[in-house]
Amino acid sequence: MPTFTFNLPDIGEGIAEAEIVAWHVKVGDRISEDQPLADMMTDKATVEMESPVSGIVTKVAGEAGDVIAIGSMLVEIETASDVSQTQSNAELQPAATVEDELPHAPETVVTPEPVATQPAVMVEKPASAPVLPQVVSAENKITASPAVRQRAKDLGVELTDVKAAGGHVRHADLDAFLAYGSGQGYRASNISARREDENVKVIGMRRRIADNMAASKRHIPHFTYVEEIDVTAIEAMRADLNANRGTKPKLTLLPLLIVAICKTIPQFPMINARFDDENGIVTRHGAVHLGMATQTDAGLMVPVIRDAQDRNIWQLATEIARLADAARNGSAKSEELSGSTLTITSLGPLGGIATTPVINRPEVAIIGPNKIVERPMFVGDTIEARKLMNLSISCDHRVVDGWDAANYVQALKKLIETPVLLFAD
Fold this sequence. Notes:
alpha+beta, CATH 2.40.50.100, Chloramphenicol Acetyltransferase, 2 domains, six-stranded mixed sheet, five-stranded antiparallel sheet, 24 strands
């Protein structure tokens, strides 16, 4: 029987190699044309490779986590008839770009089970991570990432048996199913049941996040400054704006914080900068390309709001929602996941008292708003209930001095506590 060799095509500009993130086939499988073969990750994105022919898989290049060169054999397929291989593999286009390299810092991340490259504007969860394509069952509308689907297959678990919010099965749902039994009703008697140790290979987006985080902490001398901010007035203003927004998108606090960040940057250009430590050059950027750490199923990803300084609060709200959705569903483009000059990361209602976020290298600062709490506070001679929030900033001490960071946060504090200034020229 004739054999067709499918070589890994060029799936990115100047890419020399790619990592196997997940296999969708194995030796012996009978496959059809256009059937998914594997998810491949480069420095730019994760793409799903499809078979150009039908037949039986006779050989695969390696296992998940292996790196292979562009142009080398990915899969060999035994075909029913001689298939012309004049169609260059380089002409075969990847099925779909599902995710871009996770920014180093905010990663928490990016193999389904988000991100965190580091910071996490969990623009309300959830990090994927490379954001891998989602698999949907037409009958039951069950969705799951390739990694979750493969794990369930290895464990012999039917995804339709696993309880999951919204019908989207995550690793945590599989864990609960395995820990508590049939999934038809988790039994309290099993809560203390011991589980076997599990070795999980660090590959794909999770490995990229690990590498980026390690590089950031290894090269950057971090320091973190935290200040308490009274957000009572800005929260009241936000409520008024939402009550009268008409068809505009609903505002969270984030767009207002971004406006404050952008208005203070001109006075503190060292905050909105990138440091090329190999060449000893600090570039202070005029435009604010704001990275927004977003938790996805694949890990922490950081989509970028381009020219944030030129957008009003409604435009920012729309772009935040669009980019967060794109990061989570895997449709974010490469250019939307790179090029940030400053990052904001928030855990939303899980924010905690304070955070010490890791800088998204080669940036020199990252801002982390924390949880809003209501507490009694002296206002003049009286005690009032006020909404308070701690704001953290981590900086690269090679570029930003503690005095500069503290003054920058104080400038932010003034705008946030007197929100009318956000709209004053």
